[in-house]
Amino acid sequence: MNYETILHEIYQESKTLPIIGNVSISIPELTKVDPDKFGIHLISIEGEDFGIGDSNEKFSIQSVSKVLTVALAFSFLDERIWERVGVEPSGSAFNSLVQLEYEKGIPRNPFINAGAIVIADMLVTHLENPKQDFLDFIRMISGSPTIDFNLKVAQSEKDTRFRNAALANFLKSFGNITNDVEMVLDFYFHQCSIEMTCKELAHSFFFLANEGKTISGIQVLTKSQVKRLNALMQTCGFYDESGEYTYKVGLPGKSGIGGGIAALYPKNFVVSTWSPRLNEKGNSDLGMNALELLTTKTGMSIF
Amino acid sequence: MNYETILHEIYQESKTLPIIGNVSISIPELTKVDPDKFGIHLISIEGEDFGIGDSNEKFSIQSVSKVLTVALAFSFLDERIWERVGVEPSGSAFNSLVQLEYEKGIPRNPFINAGAIVIADMLVTHLENPKQDFLDFIRMISGSPTIDFNLKVAQSEKDTRFRNAALANFLKSFGNITNDVEMVLDFYFHQCSIEMTCKELAHSFFFLANEGKTISGIQVLTKSQVKRLNALMQTCGFYDESGEYTYKVGLPGKSGIGGGIAALYPKNFVVSTWSPRLNEKGNSDLGMNALELLTTKTGMSIF
Amino acid sequence: MNYETILHEIYQESKTLPIIGNVSISIPELTKVDPDKFGIHLISIEGEDFGIGDSNEKFSIQSVSKVLTVALAFSFLDERIWERVGVEPSGSAFNSLVQLEYEKGIPRNPFINAGAIVIADMLVTHLENPKQDFLDFIRMISGSPTIDFNLKVAQSEKDTRFRNAALANFLKSFGNITNDVEMVLDFYFHQCSIEMTCKELAHSFFFLANEGKTISGIQVLTKSQVKRLNALMQTCGFYDESGEYTYKVGLPGKSGIGGGIAALYPKNFVVSTWSPRLNEKGNSDLGMNALELLTTKTGMSIF
Amino acid sequence: MNYETILHEIYQESKTLPIIGNVSISIPELTKVDPDKFGIHLISIEGEDFGIGDSNEKFSIQSVSKVLTVALAFSFLDERIWERVGVEPSGSAFNSLVQLEYEKGIPRNPFINAGAIVIADMLVTHLENPKQDFLDFIRMISGSPTIDFNLKVAQSEKDTRFRNAALANFLKSFGNITNDVEMVLDFYFHQCSIEMTCKELAHSFFFLANEGKTISGIQVLTKSQVKRLNALMQTCGFYDESGEYTYKVGLPGKSGIGGGIAALYPKNFVVSTWSPRLNEKGNSDLGMNALELLTTKTGMSIF
Q1: Which parts of chain C have pLDDT scores under 50?
Q2: Where is substrate annotated to bind (chains A, B, C, D) (predicted)?
Q3: H or E, element range at A114
């Protein structure tokens, strides 16, 4: 199977699809992005590594970062992280407070905002210099020392923080935030503001397709932990569209409102897409279509 | 009908009831209150004015203050206040976020915390010196120039503010808070920290039994506004126990977690009670019992 | 105060209001009603007794009957009826199943469908010939021996019973229906199909304004029971518009989707209205407006 | 990898685990089952085919049948089945009515009761002799002509049908049941009452691991349909424990309250377990543990 040829086909075919959705308006700074950007990158376990379209342009990874904070927390807390956050799909929007109230401050999973804020709190507690240490972790797993926060985006998220501030304070009211709310949110807004290219994103996720080992051979998580994190992405990675995504694509993946998606076929490849137009559930429309084409064309899904 | 005799009877009878509930633990400063305090005061339209028990001791009026902020906002915004807050009972706990999410940031009524925070936002916008002006209003309607905030209580509420901060930020995320969240919460915590005696509380509410006129004859609200505010207290004054309260007592009233209750029989009297032990719904157990005895004994309910 | 003059004024004024809403489409048989019917009837404790408009035409009282089934159950079970149904406003639509699930099969109050079905179950248990006995009760309190079920309407409700059948089965699954589901629904559909004129309806409710005594002097409920039932109507009588109704009208009342409303001023009068056009909450638009005019014009509200 | 050896190990190891849970009490007839039954069967694509423990005893497959009704409906309606039922995990209990109300009668997925009842309605519409035709389908895919309904169990489900009757009537009220409610429920209760051995169950699911082909080579679904059905099992197969199951086991699977589970590794094997003791979410405790051991020991998960 030649991935490069397939990717070209998918890229061309995707560009003929009807244009659907718009750039996220929830963070003012992100509305400045050109909605028609579109890039794909794939890296296989065997060493194929190539991109197409705007795959070398930086974009805001936003919620895709949640997989990486969970990975880092998982690496030093292991199963203890599930004492404060669940592993069930939420059936609600990514920023809903409803389930949090019914379930007394234990977020359904770490990929909705409430869960990611709890994970951020764990990192703030365990890391000496949380923001820098997390950035170093990202740089390490991706092999890209230039990956950085976009401070304008972080500030823009802070300026329009009210829903996330509501979630963080609500969590704190249940005792599920141990640090200062502001400090945790500051970390969270920075984590979401990280910018990567499709290539960097695919490289960052390489360890999840490679039984825990990065491209450079560092064992970030155990085999078992990687399986579990992949399982979690499969059931919870696309907010309340996770079922639909799994039904159509059949590869563990995570989306962000910056329009990025990272997905992977364990022991085979990682693929990342970027297209800023979001569907009504907040997931990249073109990105999801491209991934569906990929699994349909190649038959390469986990199911 | 001799109110004084009846009040004595009720007071004596109430003291023989089983002791139920505890002082609220939601605000640390309030836990210092002696749980066995118990006072009643009644002022009639005809001029009877007397108290019993600990009716001349100051206590934190907490949510009872919500009636007075609504009255003040009502006096200058009239029906426009209902553009941002409803008049329906909530069917949920006083600090629930669930309905707020389903109803897109419009609180069910101004007596649950979310609604009171929206009213606070209105006052912050319309008053030149919000805290002082509100205090002056209270002093004016009660005729007690010494009524004041308890700054320790206000600070204690600020220190444990997370649930209210969640509500305020959530409201702001829906655009239903126009001022700075911190400024609105600061006003709200001060409003709740006001201390009164049973006597002062009964006097403050006099205008609601007297077709809008205070004891000193100032027309605070119109007859029609007073009717509406009383109706609102009847359906929403006791959180998600409002139905039970109405069923048993049948007088418009409002409770607070400081253990105070103010209730009134339009064109007849205002009665206030204070007993800090709360039932599981957050309402003063002894206070509710005393009011039930009052309506049962006298047959004086609005129904 | 001359009620007759006022009623004439209200009737004339109401007829100039914009026409809003439509006849209920939930029961096919009811869609045949002329939407522009409009009648009012008032009976005072002092003996005034007159109607206007279509006040002598029969209409389907539908949910207004719920007050009368509660009254009958209350008369022989007293406070025990609250073991199986609550007294809190629901904050949800009249036929919602959501709260029922959260609250494990105990309906919020007897005026939403679920609660009324539980009351129907009580009557089926306690009455020898449930339908006939209930009809006899209605005839007795109203003094109208010709009041009857409309069997076509009952059948039409049965044919489109799915939501109510869902509620009844759901209640049964929680153990809160003791008889056969079909038998209880049959009673319920018949109770709702009762037809009265405005005059008969006002007469039926007379005992609720008269401390428990019917026009002919029969003590149906105790004074205390009547107060409680009135209180319940005030907080729960208009589904999730009860707060709005109480805010505007300030008289205990109950509406039905046939377009009827019965309301009362304790110790003063009962007023009934009929206009089949319903607002979006399922309450008679013109009826609510007429009652609001009545309280505004006369100042006669309980608050 | 020798599956037989592994299965023996798992079987022995599982038997030393603490005994947790009890037989389902929701259907009286099922309570008669010996709680300590335990069987496993595995069939691989390569032809290995063996069982252990009570793997040749019949048990009630209950909700496991939902996969087979979906497969049959999918085979003749293809993607059109998703017009009436979703593919998202529910986040609620299997028999919840709450989401159904919020989502206007479209069940979240076909593996919760509401969704399965809608699928049953489709089959009742499309099959000439629904019960017999479905039975024939099961016999065909399993290769076991003796598989049958247990009429006592079907009757027992009918006798205690209230929750399911509530769901079916509720669906009908939204127009999402086209046939008579009783007829649909009759089909549904029969489908759930089907009895199989672990061996028969594993054989029935063989086509899902074999790209749509049964053991005898009949193409039941297309490759693509099989992938989609497997994906759906992964996200929704274990009610509101689907996330936990996926996290721990990582194989598409479906459980039933009879204590059975069928799970599969696409292109590799199908494994079935039976142990009637259920955890609090209604899934077989020992079965889930056995499957977790299987994936842990062999590393054979899809992630």
Answers
A1: none
A2: 63, 113, 157, 164, 188, 239
A3: helix A113-126
Report the alpha-carbon distance of residue D260 to residue D255 in Å, rounded: 6
Q: Does the pLDDT at position B235 exceed 80?
A: yes
Q: Do B163 and A170 touch (CB under 8 A)?
A: yes
pTM score: 0.93
Q: How far is C75 from chain B (nearest CA, A)?
A: 16
Residue A47 falls inside a structural domain: yes
> How many contacts does B have with C, using Cβ atoms within 8 A?
112
DSSP for residue C219: B
Cβ separation D169–C166 shorter than 8 A? yes
**CA–CA dist A232, A204 (Å, integer):** 17
| Contact across the interface for A173 and B167, Cβ inside 8 Å | no
Give the number of C-alpha atoms closer than 13 A to the C-alpha of residue D20, restricted to the C-beta side.
Answer: 16
Contact D101 C97 (CB under 8 A): yes
Q: Residue A266: which of D236, D243, D303 has the nearest Cβ?
A: D303
For residue C20, what are its two tokens? 């809003």
Residue D1, pLDDT score: 61
For chain C, state the CA radius of gyration: 18
Are A165 and A185 spatial neighbours (Cβ–Cβ below 8 Å)?
A: yes
Q: Taking a C-beta distance cutoff of 8 angstroms, is the pair B209, B268 a contact?
A: yes
Q: Is residue B191 part of a domain?
A: yes
CB atoms within 10 A of CB C217: 8
Q: Which of C289, C31, C49 is nearest to C153 (CA)?
A: C31
Domain enclosing residue D52, as ranges: 3-298
Torsion of CA A128, A134, A138, A144, to 10 degrees: -70
Mean of pLDDT over chain A: 95
Residue D194 has, within 13 A of its CA and on its CB side, a CA count of 34
Phi and psi based region of residue C213 (left: phi greater than 0; alpha: psi -120 to 50; beta: remaining): beta
d(CA B2, CA B11): 15
Confidence of residue D37 (pLDDT cuts 50, 70, 90): very high
CA distance C60 to C66: 13
Q: Map residue D53 onto helix, strand or coil.
A: strand
For C82-129, write each residue's pLDDT tens digit: 999 999 998 766 677 788 888 889 999 999 999 999 999 999 999 999
Closest CA to B239 of B69, B113, B121, B118: B113
The minimal CB distance from B87 to the residues C228, C244, C302 is found for C244
Cβ contacts of D167 on chain C, cutoff 8 Å? 166
C-alpha span between D40 and B222 (Å, rounded):
78
CA distance A273 to chain D (A): 20
CB–CB of D219/D276 below 8 Å? no
Residues in C closer than 8 angstroms to D172, CB to CB, are 162
Residue B303 domain flag: no
Using CB atoms, which residue from A108, A223, A303 is nearest to D231? A303
Annotated binding residue B279: no
> How far is B212 from chain C, CA to nearest CA, in Å?
12
> Distance between CA C130 and CA B290 in Å, rounded?
40
CB contact under 8 Å between C181 and D162, yes or no, is: yes
**Distance, CA of D94 to CA of D105 (rounded, Å):** 15
In a domain, C303, yes or no: no
Task: Report residue A93's pLDDT band, with 50, 70 and 90 as the boundaries.
Answer: low
Distance CA B246, CA C234 (A): 9
**Residues A271, A272, A277: CA angle, nearest 5 degrees:** 140
Number of structural domains found in chain C: 1
- Which of B109, B246, B294 would you mutate first to test chain C, the one with the most C CBs within 10 A? B246
CATH of the domain at B125: 3.40.710.10
Terminal Cα distance for chain B, rounded: 18
Kindly provide the ipTM of the predicted complex, given to two decimals: 0.93
| CA–CA distance, D237 with D281 (Å, rounded to integer) | 12
CB atoms within 10 A of CB D300: 17
